[in-house]
User: Fold this.
Amino acid sequence: MRSRRLVVSFLAVLTFLGAAVAPRAALAESRPRDVMNAAELELAIQKLRVLGSVLYVAAHPDDENTALITYLESDRLARVGYLSMTRGSGGQNLIGPETGDALGVIRTQELLAARAIDGAEQFFTRAIDFGYSKTSDETMTFWGRDAVLSDVVWTIRTFRPDVIVTRFPLDTRGGHGHHQASAILAKEAFAAAADPMRFPEQLRLAQPWRAKRILWNAFRPDTGKRDPALPKLLTVDLGAYNALLGKSYTELSAASRSMHKSQGFGAAERRGPVPNFLELLDGEPATADLFDGVATGWSRIPRGESVDSILAEAEERFDANEPQRIVPLLVRARAAMRALGDDPWVRVKRRELDDVIRSCAGLWLEAIATRPFALPGGSVPVTVSLLSRSDVPVTLTQVVMPSGAALRDASDSTRSLANRPLSRNIPVEGTTTVSPAKSATMTQPYWLRQRPGAGAYQVRKAGATDTVEKETPDEAENRPALAVRFELEIGGERIAYDVPVLYRWTDRVAGERYRPLEVVPPVTLRLDRSAYLFAEAKPREVRVIVESSGPTVSGSVRLDLPPGWQSTPAETTIALRGSDTPGSARFWVRPGERAVSGLLAASMTVGGTRHDRSRTVIDYPHIPVTTIFPPAEAHLVRADVKRTGSRVGYVMGSGDEMPAALEEMGYRVTLLSDDEIESGALTGLDAVVVGIRAYNTRPHLRSLQHDFFDYVSAGGTMVVQYNTVEEALQDRLGPYPFKLSRDRVTVEGSPVRLLKAEHPLLRAPNKIGAADFDGWVQERGLYFAKPWDAAYEPVLSMSDPNEELMEGSLLYARYGKGVYIYTGIAWFRQLPAGVPGAYRLFANLVGGGRE
Assistant:
């Protein structure tokens, strides 16, 4: 079967078309949709005749097999969805300092960028990625098995896949607990989705659905050892060459795989045979093809042959040089679809058909705001544009603006745009001012609007009968803040295209860029630190930066403190003159005698309304600009932290907040470039700290090891944080050989044993005890050393429950007059999270255990 070009998949970038709901893969577009080129159109027309679907299921962003997804979308022309159990917030970040919720937003957008290339739709459950998990039981307990299972069932019932494919097996061969849990839940949901007694509340909005089969995307089998009693394997060659595209499916899929940049998953374009294997887990066996026994044409819809015959004629008569010639046939097909009723497949194909009609007619539709944000109840000027680049008769019947805003012709304000025939290549433009409702929700990723629960995001339950504007838990992202509906008449058919309001600007390097219009709060607050260390019971200044997104506002700013803490003043008044003039509120915060660590929260009350959010803009070239509004909070760390030395050089790796934490401890921190290291900048420093993944992300550092080791030998202290396993790093990170392993301790509360209580790193300048390992977050550590040279001394041992103790989390060695330390402990999580004992122990590392 011929395949469609994958420059920008029309499936992954559809919005609300006609009366149908938008595909959940792309609810808020980041740029206006381009029309399809001739190759895309030819294959989109072919796809209109294919009514087969596959749901791929795995645990995280980047777990999906993009090559198989590309093959299914591009060769089989199926409708494909990827269900990721989590948004990946528990992973590491190779491209910047974001962790936690912010990283989850990045990885969500990376998945959508991947889907825009390979053509699939994107879904999620409410499950939170809480970091590496060693067992499926731990994972299920943390997530809440029934809650996440209900989300998987909901996706199956609404997507209605003919075939389900899991990335991982049901046992431990697939890696850690999240992976295994994703397969277990998928198999259980395969049966539960068909059972009307399971999650019956969903049946108000969906119907039970049973896929034909569920398959595991199996590992390459050892044919000589495979048990003949096991189910028959199906084989597909993902390396098959597509002459129309000039690439194999593995070459095409490398681009979508490479969108997972925060995880360092850039992929090579493989060529030649790449067999993949599918093993039956449940359902009807297949003898030759994963769609065996599935009707994948219009015959599956009663009276559907009438539509298929028209589409077959359109396919036959399609002319790449004059695609508009088949618009009358496409319009006939649309009318024939309408006569078939409201079958879900009819809704899906009508969406696709409307997009094909739009492209054949060369229609360009956009709605552009003059600024990237609007306030609830505020206003923003918007220009709408419509351009037909063909001779297809098109009439703009009306443009429906948000909140009923009046729209006038941009060149003649007395003229309406209603009932306007379009002329070839002559744009029609209208201008107006739109106003989000005073009750409009700020453009916060919907899964972050409430504080997450222990293992799942707090969003509405799948199948609940809340208002239709609310997102369901499988949706990839928010629906557009504002959208414009263009209602057109084409060949007697009335077709509506909903277009999100965007902001457009020109970057001097990147050229034209877009971002979705955002609804923002009138005031946001930002604390000058993410954590404040109080080593003594003395007051210190806390500064709150207050910013306004609109006109002049004034109000009172205050700090909410944990018990035993006080601020002076209790509150202060600030007047802001607009978005260009942020204000600053200063407080002196003092811990009481019995005050313990806790959270500080800043807020500003304006006109009786309390605002307590900060504003973080995430901007990377490969994903849309995204803004999140986390609570305006910081950690108050009450801990007796002593330090030795004062000057620290920091070698930044993939990005973290450790330099700020070191400054909180009283160090003067210098960020070191490769050139500075090479030119002697290490001289005079009391310690050098190497950031996470530094040797992975800055390969030139490997050639500077002699500079580091000379520095240590002369009396300096070097602390190297974790790097991921690379053969080129083994036995080369330290002055004596040691290897990196994949050993890790994932349970943050696991007991920690002090191997030598009087070891310098546990004695000076802070005496470390068991209490210093209380209150840690997410994990103890990762990528421990194993094995190591006898010159190193292990300092701690730890393990997850029911596992052997590991001693490679913290190694200490004397080298010349100085000290070298390797540590796989997750300091990059603990210090920004305000863990008191982590500050105390890390100060000992930076001091090299010196008094």
Observations:
- The domain at 523-637 is CATH 2.60.40.10 (Immunoglobulin-like).
- Residues 100-118 form the longest helix (19 residues).
- Residues 1-27 have pLDDT under 50 and may be disordered.
